[in-house]
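Protein modeling request. Please complete all fields; requests missing the sequence field cannot be processed.
Requester role: graduate student
Desired output: 3D structure, token encoding
Chains: 1
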Amino acid sequence: MANKYPNSGALFPAKKTSPKAPDHTGKLSVNADLLKSCPRDSDGNVEIRIAAWERSGQNGSIFLSIVASAPQPKKEPWE
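Delivered output (79 residues):
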């Protein structure tokens, strides 16, 4: 999938065909360098941070714009 924004994608409302069908579907393009920089658990699974923004399409439909990144270190709460 050619994408001018690295590590990004979109989720669009899905047509529900059953109660268990997903509410949104889409694609996420992830750069191999991002995968290499993300931590792995003991089973070899990669943890990726995902952020999403609601956007309006040209036809007025609402979708979620998503971006993947390496997990951020936890910040200390403000005192």
